[in-house]
Amino acid sequence: MRLEFTLLWFENQIAEVRPAIQGLKAHLEEAGFELCVLEEADDTNIDAHARNQESFHDIDLIVVDLDLGEAAASGDEIAQQIRRRFKFTDIVFYSGVAPSELRGRIQQRNVDGVYCMARSELRANLIELVDDLIRRMSRLEAMRGLAVATAGKADLRMRAILKALHEGADEAGKAELVAFIDKEVKDGDDRLQRKYEGAATLAEKVDSLACTSMVLLKATKKFVGQRQELRTQRTVLGRYQVEVMDIRNSLGHATETRTSDGWVIRAHGGGNITRDDFPTFRQSFSRHLSNLDALCEILGVQVTGDAEKG
After folding, report:
1. From what superkingdom does this record's organism come (predicted)?
2. What's the angle, vertex CA 193, arms to CA 187 and CA 198, rounded to 5?
């Protein structure tokens, strides 16, 4: 599960469907997702998108207009190519003509898994369809995985930020940062601490398993807070433990039970977590990753080992 929802959209007059895109974008933001639209005016790049999908499965939904201009393939032709190359990814096929005519064209080409929509109803129908897709993703296992992935991505960024802060500090600042992390690690697991003692450089120390997520957070908050120009980002970091780490831990120990009223998620120690909580969780995850990305950008940090935010 990711924090992005990606559409591949075939439309040669994309300005005409901007209201639908903006409406869907706003709706997805409320659900805790960031909308990404890959725009194509014709079928030129279908093979490239298909190869990318086979490798990364980034595209969640494909939207195709019927009429892409006289020189381009028609939307039903493109839908046929898509189904051949993208397997089971859902397709939305739309136009100003009646949906019954669109279904006839799709049927003639023997293409399955296509939703036919009138252009005038595109915005409302896309929101309804995407809502259904989100509900399928809103199970405990998916949210638990997203929380763990978010914390892992955040750890990568904090390690990179601490290395950058250390590199840019004077000798006294470098020593203070190393001493702070040394002290925090010494309060942790003895077995991991023994491995940590073999680390000679700051980079080796923060990459050590003994330098836990909590140690990384404490060090990042403390030393980011010493920089006046980073105070805004430090304020957001102040909510990271509650809005990411505590949620990750709660989801990690929660259980999901099938009941007559649907799935019920019970937190360890009492209380329920509902699907209505999931948009807030996703919004928090996205906000904190964006904040860490902003810190990395300000410090000129390149994060390695992580190709996406969500």
Report:
1. Bacteria
2. 140
**Cα first-last separation, the chain:** 8
The strands making up 4-10's β-sheet, listed across from edge to edge, are 34-40, 4-10, 61-65, 91-95, 114-118
* pLDDT tens-place string over residues 145-189: 999 999 999 999 999 999 999 999 999 999 999 999 999 888 666
Q: Are 11 and 42 in contact (CB under 8 A)?
A: no
Closest CA to 7 of 34, 44, 27, 43: 34
Q: Quick one: CA torsion of 197, 203, 209, 213, rounded to 10 degrees?
A: 120
Can you say whether the dihedral through the CA atoms of 192, 197, 203, 206 is positive or negative? positive
The 10s digit of each residue's pLDDT in 140-157 is 989 999 999 999 999 999
Three-state SS letters, 60-123: CEEEEECCCCCCCCCHHHHHHHHHHHHCCCCEEEEECCCHHHHHHHHHHCCCCCEEEEEHHHHH
Report whether 233 contacts 208 (CB < 8 A): no
Domains of the chain listed by start with CATH number: 4-137 (3.40.50.2300), 140-299 (no CATH)
